[in-house]
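Hey team,

Filing this mostly as a record. A colleague (T.K.) asked me to run one chain through the structure pipeline before their review meeting, and I want the input and output archived in the tracker in case anyone asks later how it was produced. No errors, nothing strange. Just documentation.

Input sequence:
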Amino acid sequence: MQHRTVHDVMTQGVVTARIDTPFKEVAGLFHRNDITAVPVVDDRDHPLGMVSEADLLRNEAIQPDPEGHLAGYRLSPHERARAEAETAGALMSSPAVTARPDWSLVETARVMDRKRVKRLPVVDEAGRLVGIVSRSDLLQVFLRHDAAIREEIIHDVLGQTLWLTPSAVEVSVHNGIVTLAGRVEQKSLIPIVERLCRSVDGVVAVHHTLGYTVDDTGLDLGKPLVRGLVGPFTPHH
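Output structure:
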């Protein structure tokens, strides 16, 4: 099974700012390049932090309201210092939360969620900036066609990984939702099939009506195997 990595979806040739890049130049970078954030890097291209549109808008938010509607708007001393910042170094959120090119999209999404960020600078082994990955980049996997998802499940998951015969499990995919039907040998195999199918890029959910021949869950070697799809095992006399 082949999974896309950050390298596959990241944007290369990243627009960056320096610590001393003026406020208005950062705004110009956003406008000219149709972007909403830039990494701030040092002389060795090591990310130091990020400046986003929200950081620039904070400056606008502290301005006096001509009609006096926001007279009670207050910021902490730290927030006010950033709102009044004149350079990228003072504006940026730091330290920079980064990703590596070989990270899986799942791992990257978890870091974004845990750190509450919308994008991650991508760095190489030396910590140098090589790209940037955003939430929208991670969502590219859900653009995969249903036919491609179905083919990967049948060929890679069921065939090459689990060695199931093509007739054992019927696979259908609609809008990224996988439905499995059929019968496998061991009951313990069902959650494995489900988990591996769920890990395929572009899969939204997995539903199944899989049956089994042998109930090998909690197997006691001193007792007979339970066979069949329904009903308790009844030994023959």
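Quick notes for T.K.: The chain has two domains: 6-141, 144-227. The longest strand covers residues 205-215.
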